[in-house]
Specification:
It comes from Tanacetum coccineum. It is a single chain. By secondary structure, the protein is an alpha+beta fold. The chain is built from 5 helices and 5 strands, in the order H-H-H-H-E-H-E-E-E-E. The protein folds into 2 domains: 66 residues, no CATH class; 57 residues, SH3 type barrels (Roll). The longest helix is centred in the middle third of the chain and has 39 residues. It is elongated and about 85 Å long. The two termini are 44 Å apart.
Length: 149
């Protein structure tokens, strides 16, 4: 998976400065002892002036990262479609046909695709020719390969 960061903390993007934890205030450290208050106040003012620009850069970086992840995920998707007459299995968890234990069958069927309704929806019929009342999404179907002997 692709991960990236803009390098800024959420606290910095919200308040315009890095957080100082209470332990650093009570116990003198190099960072807290070497601060010049006038320069610090000027720097805080400049940070507040530039905070909008920093937020915009973070939003742009986030959009780029999301686009990159979307491209990565979409490249791994395998397109599948069924034609009328194809034999398929349907997911037992999706149909709730049988309430079985975890070792029960995951797929049931075979069923024949009666009609393609578009956008991955299908009407099915069983081996006896009875139409299944619900429509089925492509995510809950898989192709049935029947080998003839």
């Amino acid at each position: 998976m692709i991960k990236s960061s803009n390098g800024d903390t959420p606290f910095l993007l919200t308040y315009g400065t890095e957080a100082v934890i209470p332990a650093e205030i009570g116990m003198p450290t190099l960072w807290t002892t070497e601060i010049d208050l006038t320069k610090n106040n000027e720097a805080l003012g400049m940070n507040l002036d530039l905070i909008e620009e920093r937020r915009e850069q973070a939003a742009i970086q986030e959009a780029k990262s999301k686009k990159k992840m979307e491209k990565y995920c979409n490249s791994r998707v395998r397109g599948t479609s069924f034609k009328p007459g194809d034999m398929v299995y349907r997911n037992n968890e999706a149909s709730h046909a049988r309430d079985e234990c975890k070792l029960g069958p995951k797929w049931e069927g075979p069923y024949e695709v009666k009609e393609s309704l578009g956008k991955g929806a299908y009407k099915l019929k069983d081996c006896k020719g009875n139409e299944i009342q619900r429509t089925w999404n492509i995510c809950n179907l898989k192709k049935c390969y029947i080998h003839e002997v």
